[in-house]
Amino acid sequence: MWKKIYSENKAIVWAGVAAIVGIVAVLVKVPDEVTRFTLIMPIFAGFILFSILMTADEELEEETEGQISKTKSSKKSSKK
Q1: What are the extents of the domains in the chain?
Q2: FRET partner for 58 with CA separation of 20 to 30 A, picked from 9, 13, 21, 29?
């Protein structure tokens, strides 16, 4: 199960790992709570934006592949 999830979402998994490492580094190194919040929020926002953009690309690729296969199948049926 985990292998399938990882193989289908490698970019998002590694972006999440990078975000977690960045957040932990900020929590360990920065003593002030306000500065922590200020530094952590862009990391969250970047991860969310990256996830949204990657999902849109994957859906677009699936639609394009579906259209290509439909075009090929219609050409094969018209040749017969």
Answers
A1: 9-36+43-67
A2: 21
